């Protein structure tokens, strides 16, 4: 880690083995909101095996064999990471397991009086529209409109600009729709 206020360490050093590899649980502690850059060394000891860093909170995985520095945006002071080492098939399966199995939509804090975070998950890359409507069906905000990769995503809703009341977040992606009630209070 290149940040003096961030550190990572293994939660357990001897994971349960499965056919083809091992997955280590890691903890990353950092200042909230500060990106952390992680780099690796000594990978020649892997002797042809694959290694990926998996970030379950986003569904992203990073091939550590490429030798590049990985930048992680922690989701709070402590973030869970996974390090998968083994055959390319094993590591690929572990990376895919970090992706959400179905489309979902949530928001927090709810109720909100200021800025709300609207979080959504996609099992595969899709064209996405995320809009907010009032109870009369009028669109009051468009938060996302475009192609998004598989994984977990966030958008901000500036609720302080909206009158108190009930609103609905509507996520459309790949022919599926999810809605989430969002309450604004003053």
Shape: elongated
Count of individual helical segments: 1
Binned strand content? over 45%
What is the β-strand count? 14
Low-confidence stretches: 10-16
Structural class: mainly beta
Kindly state the percentage of residues in helix. under 10%
Q: Helix and strand string, N-terminal first? A: EEEEEEEHEEEEEEE
Describe the structure.
By secondary structure, the protein is mostly beta strands. It has one helix and 14 strands, in the order βββββββαβββββββ. The strands form four sheets. Strands 1-2-7-4-5 form a five-stranded antiparallel β-sheet. The protein has a four-stranded antiparallel β-sheet with strand order 11-10-13-14, with no helix packed on it.
Topology, element by element:
Blueprint (H helix, E strand, L loop, with lengths): L6 E4 L10 E9 L6 E3 L11 E6 L4 E4 L6 E3 L5 E9 L1 H10 L6 E5 L6 E8 L3 E9 L4 E10 L2 E8 L6 E9 L2 E9 L2
Antiparallel strand pairs: 1-2, 2-7, 3-6, 4-5, 4-7, 8-9, 9-12, 10-11, 10-13, 13-14
Keywords:
single chain; 186 residues; mainly beta; 4-stranded antiparallel beta sheet; 1 helix; elongated
């Amino acid at each position: 880690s290149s940040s003096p206020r961030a550190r990572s360490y293994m939660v357990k050093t001897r994971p349960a083995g499965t056919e083809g590899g091992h997955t280590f649980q890691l903890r990353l502690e950092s200042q909230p909101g500060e990106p952390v850059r992680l780099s690796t060394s000594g990978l020649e000891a892997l002797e042809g095996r694959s290694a990926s860093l998996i970030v379950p909170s986003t569904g992203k995985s990073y091939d550590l064999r490429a030798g590049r520095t990985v930048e992680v945006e922690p989701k709070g002071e402590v973030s869970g990471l996974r390090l998968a080492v083994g055959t390319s098939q094993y590591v690929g399966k572990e990376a895919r397991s970090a992706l959400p199995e179905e489309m979902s939509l949530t928001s927090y804090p709810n109720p909100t009086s200021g800025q709300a975070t609207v979080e959504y998950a996609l099992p595969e890359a899709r064209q996405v529209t995320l809009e907010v409507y009032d109870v009369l069906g009028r669109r009051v905000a468009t938060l996302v409109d475009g192609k998004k990769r598989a994984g977990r995503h966030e958008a901000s809703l500036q609720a302080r600009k909206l009158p108190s009341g009930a609103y609905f977040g509507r996520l459309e992606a790949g022919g599926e729709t999810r809605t989430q009630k969002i309450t604004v209070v003053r």
